[in-house]
Amino acid sequence: MAEKTDxxxxxxxxxxxxxxxxxxxxxxxxxxxxxxxxxVIRVMCSGRVNPLFxxxxxxxxxxxVLISGxxxxxxxxxxxxxxxxxxxxxxxxxxxxxxxxxxRVRMSWVSASEGAKWKEVIEEVVNGVKAVGPxxxxxxxxxxx
Amino acid sequence: xNGKPKIGVYVCHCxxxxxxxxxVEEVVKFASTLPDVVIARNYSYMCSDPGQAxxxxxxxxxxxxxxxxxxxxxxxxEPTFRxxxxxxxxxxxxxxxxxxxxxxSWVHEDPIAATEKAKRIVEAAVVKARRLEALDVKEVDVEPxxxxxxxxxxxxxxxxDIADAGFxxxxxxxxxxxxxxxxxxxKTFPTLDCSACILTPKMVDVANHPNIELxxxxxxxxxxxxxxxxxxxxxxxxxxxxxxxxxxxxxxAEACRMAGRFPNEFDEGIGMRGAIYLPFPQAVPAxxxxxxxxxxxxxxxxxxxxxxxxxxxQAKAINFxxxxxxxxxxxxxxxxxxxxxxxxxxxxxxxxYGVYDNVLTALEFERLVNASGPTGGQIIMLERxxxxxxxxxxxxxPPRVPESITFIQCVxxxxxxxxxxxxxxxxxxxxxxxxxLVKDKLHDCEVTVFYMDVRxxxxxxxxxxxRVRREGVRYIRGNPSEIFxxxxxxxxxxxxxxxxxxxxxxxxxxxxxxxxxxxxDNREIIDLLKLSQSSDLFYLEAHPKLRPVDTASDGIFLxxxxxxPKDIPDAVAQAKGAASAAMIPMASGKVKVExxxxxxxxxxxxxxxxxxxxxxxxxxxxxxxxxxxxxVKVARVNEALCKGCGACAAACLSGxxxxxxxxxxxxxxxxxxxxxx
Lengths: 145, 677
Prior knowledge:
A: alpha/beta, 4 helices, B: FAD/NAD(P)-binding domain
């Protein structure tokens, strides 16, 4: 995979407002540097993330997708992150069945105090997607929303 | 208002915070090419008055109906800019923020990559803004009452302030008495006020205040609802003593067959108590409690012929049939003041705590020097766990008085090896205070303090530290590596790091200045209230600088050490802050509730009920409606209960239930914008 070294993947991330988005903000406040490949959509809870959003992102040009929420047991809405985890596991099986590398979709738990962990997650995701190369399985579908 | 979107984009420099990395001009140029963008500007500080005036002027002159502010995190300034829109009568939910500071300029160094990312973030905000809708801000009534959990100094102060202002307070304390850790202390630094003397009047006040309902020996079991309308369930544990009849005379405790058999928690195990006990003489309420784990009658079903305490009690207050009582009530706000544990010194085995009798924690030493403690304030060598064999005619040996006492600071604080990186903030000064008390009581006792740094940062602290050194307390800079026994002396092995000299210091007694740690039962409150923890595992405040008493949940506030180590005046100040914060919604009587709730399209809903199942708040129910003459079931949202998590929207198979401001048609364009390479 040596030819893929200058490939800079584009990753769409869905972060819950209370933990992971706040954790990513904390990484900023603490000036913790990390690669610029991840672009964030804020949702109130990881439980809001419809699996179709992930499919949609992969269709729209994202090389990878990250969903991040509160640690199990810490969900601001009691159980939304459990829904997210269950949906994520089913969806990953489905994506694998379609032939999408599992490295492309990832779920993590990052709390509001884990700015340093956010950086680690980003680095892992970026390196994981770099290793499998650009996402060119789905045809890009530009819609006029 | 909902006509064709006319969007204004405002890119903030934030001084050099953003503009130092991101090419702001280029982002503005790019933004002005996006669909429906009427105007794009940049300004040094968008949150300043002139910055906000740029927005309001454009709304009025250009007829903007959507605003995108590209600046800091929405968690920082979304409320600010929502108010800006509202000030010129634009619905505040027509605002979208693009976070190009915390999640862009502060975390990326390469200006080209950061500018490119900032453009994508701005575009995602613009395409969402095109789809934003006006939302109604609803208000609900606030119950004019407050639940305070924990009755240490922080909880007591918060309860008194709120009750004095005329609101009802339910003060719930787990232990048999109020007072918390503060009532265990002897003197307080740096003024040497007697801790009990300044606290007991407040303890009596919370018990007698007409607006305070005090529940001791009680635990909060369930919390439901939301700001303004919390439903609380409290378990009042049975003391097996009728609170109305008990006079607090203490005859029962004297009569108890198990008197003096069990370590008294209040005395940190240095003093003993029986199965029926009052933790300390000034306890509030002054009512006795039977420890059901240790009471002979309650564990074995038999206590001689009949329970001695019952025989002794003239008020007939003891009743072994009494059961736990469940109390339910409503409150508008909640203050969490659950306090702390002290660090378990056994986690530092090199200090041999629990091995040698005269290695003490500082809290144990507080009880030892305390005039109302088990030794009446005499500092004596301890013989722990040894039963005194009294033989006829044999005089008890007089207790030995230590000739040398050594303090070790930072035990369990500033120590990564035990997982506590933080400074506990009180140990330097309580060590100085205890050293002073030793010198005060035992003039000839040699007192040595091993320290890493001395942090005497508060009002009067440095002066006190100076005074203690002048009194002859010897400070040695060095973190001891080991404590062992040589003959009848303890030996502290350390290095004086100022002179680089290894040394072995012989002493009679070692006091470990243990740090403050989150309570071992912290999890109970987290599960009840969904609080977050910071990396030190204390409860997390909503903002470290500007919202230090708030939590992420509206209507729930923090006071005292449960939020992080602090001394008494800081805990009192925070408690007063939390009390005043809690009184804001109670005084106004109304509070705004979540507007980004879910909404059902009843035309397409097919009533499958998936949303009903996933809703964590039971906010959705199926109702029957008439669809073209046919009765069909559709989902309906109770907006007072919906908290806007969006779980239902993700579960809906037909997209019929949507979360306002996070609808599919608002998020999908964002995904498309971010997918662009």
